[in-house]
């Protein structure tokens, strides 16, 4: 049963990686990082779940955490760039508002440019989600490799507490990913790609958490 759940978790992970790699636009640096992170997570999951032995599990854990540490400052850069884009949008809107003639094309262009900007709060939130996902996945891979579960040791021992914290954190992040997917779907300008990416992350993590929780 646990092996089936691990294999099932690879399906949404593969789907999410395909969405991330094939559907990104905008900044090459930011989209390239997210695409590389998605592929790295999928390959690491497949390697550990299928016992392929491509890379030692501890190296996968270190690599995913290192990628997450790279993504966090990229998120700050994206947010700073978004502030500049928002300032330019405000200036354009002010000029259009003061114009004696309606300038709908200018406003529409400004709205489209701001909406599709590869920087800003939306890009920052996406990078933060990817970085946190890398950290959560690293913790789950460590548990998979070690064969730990929340019931391996006594609830009063440190060895039993760590798997419980990792599984609890992963379950919480899966819930957050599901909430993020629903939120992106309900936006006035629907972000279907981001919705699918977050949903696939939530499904993959939920299956992995279920598999590790059942392995007693």
TrEMBL record:
Signal peptide: none
Keyword Lyase carried by entry: no
Transmembrane segment boundaries: 26-45, 52-72, 127-146, 158-179, 191-214
Sequence segments annotated as region (Disordered): 98-117
Keywords: Membrane, Transmembrane, Transmembrane helix
Name the record gives this protein: DUF5134 domain-containing protein
